[in-house]
């Protein structure tokens, strides 16, 4: 993309309404604009990051054997009356009447709709295990939407639902989800810690939340710092291997890690003092096993191998995709702007032309731009007639992990400058080597 054709409405001033750094930077970098309280338009740069996160979520869910699908944002109230949640959900549910006077709602989550789809189509243990998921906009009429996309009213969420014949297989689905979530966050360049959580209105006792540590997080968290050293890395995971999934879950759930809702000071004190940490955290996902809560209420049964008809065991699993955009910025920024982890960066490299209009510099930049595109490096080329300082400030603000700077002085020696956004370190290289270096870096991502 050429900057001269890109819609990137950068703000010079710090917006007064934004209380936390990710919200300020998302507004300043032209990623989002508020449409109404807690409801945002995603401008091209923000949309690109959202899509990158969505792609990673899909890839990791499909790798775990889960089925992507898409359910609507609007749902009929009747299904929610069946489960009893139409009345229980309260003010957070946005209720709508259509022209025929029928009650609809903008879905805050999808247990009822998916259970309805399941009961109408699946009747036998032979079709299990089954996990269905979608990534769709949700609406919760939060009393105090704030912090930009972190606590919106409309937000983008991955929600998945497992259906299993009995509790042990449903627990395997739970473990599989935990492992797939760990992989998902790790690929995004994030450390998200699974913490034992309280279940709330969805019901069930087996639940973990995934929290990213950040001072601006809304939850208070208590953890053993040993958990920060755990990494899946490039180990191969076989999602059909129950034992492997269980042992990964054990590895991650053995060190103490709880939110204030489940915190137990006496147990916490068994952790060696120097490893006992208290902090704030942002909830970026949650997994639940809730047994037959919805299948009982909605009569979703399967025939077992022995010929009995039993209610199916279920769990639900969510990732806050739009919240993650803010959470990643909270975890990765400096005074000059955002620092995107390579896997989620909106563009992989920025090209800065120090002397737009100079024939040689323009030619070199054009060549680099085309070559970078051909290599799949998705470059953003700042081809505007701005001063160098302004171009650098824009690149720093929008946080692309790498920048190639092209100027007449370097070109005399046949070199350009490759700069890392995170470390600020620069290196002079030929344009070919600079691109080769980037291809190598991104090959592993
Ligand atoms: P919270 O406790 O933050 O209100 P929740 O526990 O009600 O969230 P879940 O039902 O677990 O939310 O939804 C799954 C994920 O969706 C959450 O882990 C979070 O990342 C995201 N999410 C929930 N509510 C919002 C919101 N209002 N704005 C943005 N993301 C949200
Ligand atoms: Mg939650």
Question: What labels describe this entry?
Answer:
single chain; about 450 residues; alpha+beta; BirA Bifunctional Protein, domain 2; Rossmann fold; 2 domains; 9-stranded mixed sheet; 5-stranded mixed sheet; 14 helices; binds adenosine-5'-triphosphate; binds magnesium ion
The biggest sheet, with number of strands, parallel, antiparallel or mixed sense and barrel status, is: 9 strands, mixed
Bound molecules: adenosine-5'-triphosphate, magnesium ion
Task: Please name the CATH topology of the largest domain.
Answer: BirA Bifunctional Protein, domain 2
- Supply the CATH class of the largest domain: Alpha Beta
Radius of gyration: 24 Å
The averaged pLDDT comes out at: 96
The low-pLDDT segments are: none
Full CATH superfamily name of the largest domain: Bira Bifunctional Protein, Domain 2
Count structural domains.
2
Overall form? globular
Could you estimate the helical fraction of the residues in percent? 25-40%
Distance between the termini: 21 Å
Looking at the overall shape, the CATH architecture of the largest domain is: 2-Layer Sandwich
The helix tally amounts to 14
Please count the beta strands (DSSP E, at least 2 residues each): 23
Coarse structural class: alpha+beta
Portion of residues in beta strands equals: 25-35%
Topology summary:
Blueprint: H1 21-28, E1 32-36, E2 39-42, H2 44-63, E3 67-68, E4 74-76, H3 77-83, H4 85-88, E5 94-97, E6 103-106, H5 111-121, E7 130-139, E8 154-164, H6 167-187, E9 192-196, E10 206-213, E11 219-224, H7 242-253, E12 257-259, H8 265-268, E13 276-291, H9 293-298, E14 301-303, E15 309-311, E16 313-320, H10 321-331, E17 333-334, E18 337-338, E19 349-353, H11 359-374, E20 379-382, H12 388-398, E21 402-406, H13 408-412, E22 416-420, E23 426-429, H14 431-443
Parallel strand pairs: 3-7, 19-20, 19-21
Antiparallel strand pairs: 1-2, 4-6, 5-6, 7-8, 8-16, 9-10, 10-13, 11-12, 11-13, 13-16, 14-15, 17-18, 21-22, 22-23
């Amino acid at each position: 993309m050429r900057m001269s054709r890109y819609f990137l409405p950068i703000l010079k001033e710090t917006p007064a309404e934004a209380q936390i750094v990710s919200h300020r930077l998302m507004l300043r970098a032209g990623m989002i604009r508020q449409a109404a309280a807690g409801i945002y338009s995603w401008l091209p740069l923000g949309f690109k990051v959202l899509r990158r996160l969505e792609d990673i979520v899909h890839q990791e869910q499909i790798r775990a054997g889960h089925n992507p699908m898409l359910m609507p944002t609007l749902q009929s109230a009747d299904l929610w009356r069946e489960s009893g949640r139409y009345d229980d959900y309260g003010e957070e549910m946005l209720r709508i009447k259509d022209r025929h006077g029928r009650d609809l709602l903008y879905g805050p989550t999808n247990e009822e709709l998916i259970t309805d789809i399941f009961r109408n189509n699946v009747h036998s243990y032979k079709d299990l295990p089954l996990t269905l998921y979608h990534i769709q906009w949700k609406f919760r009429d939060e009393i105090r939407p704030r912090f930009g996309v972190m606590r919106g009213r409309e937000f983008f969420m991955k929600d998945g639902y497992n259906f299993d014949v009995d509790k042990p297989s449903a627990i395997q689905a739970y473990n599989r989800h935990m492992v797939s979530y760990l992989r998902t966050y790790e690929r995004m360049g994030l450390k998200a810690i699974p913490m034992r959580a309280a279940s709330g209105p969805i019901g069930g006792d087996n639940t973990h939340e995934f929290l990213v540590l950040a001072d601006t997080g809304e939850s208070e968290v208590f953890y053993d710092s040993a958990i920060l050293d755990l990494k899946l890395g490039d180990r191969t995971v076989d999602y059909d291997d129950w034992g492997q999934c269980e042992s990964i879950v054990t590895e991650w759930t053995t060190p103490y890690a709880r939110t204030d809702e489940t915190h137990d000071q006496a147990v916490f004190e068994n952790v060696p003092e120097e490893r006992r940490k208290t902090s704030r955290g942002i909830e970026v996902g949650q997994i639940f096993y809730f047994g037959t809560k919805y299948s009982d209420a909605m009569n979703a049964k399967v025939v077992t191998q022995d010929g009995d008809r039993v209610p199916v065991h279920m769990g639900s699993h969510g990732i806050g995709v739009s919240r993650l955009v803010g959470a990643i910025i909270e975890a990765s920024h400096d005074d000059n702007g955002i620092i995107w982890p390579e896997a989620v960066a909106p563009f992989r490299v920025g090209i800065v032309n120090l002397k737009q209009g100079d024939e040689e510099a323009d030619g070199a930049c054009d060549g680099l731009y085309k070559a970078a595109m051909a290599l799949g490096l998705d470059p953003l080329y700042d081809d505007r007639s701005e001063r160098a300082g302004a171009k650098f400030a824009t690149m720093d603000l929008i946080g692309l992990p790498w920048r190639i700077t092209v100027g007449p002085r370097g070109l005399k020696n046949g070199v350009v400058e490759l700069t890392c956004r995170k470390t600020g370190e620069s290196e002079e290289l030929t344009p070919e080597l600079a691109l080769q270096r980037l291809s190598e870096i991104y090959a592993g991502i």
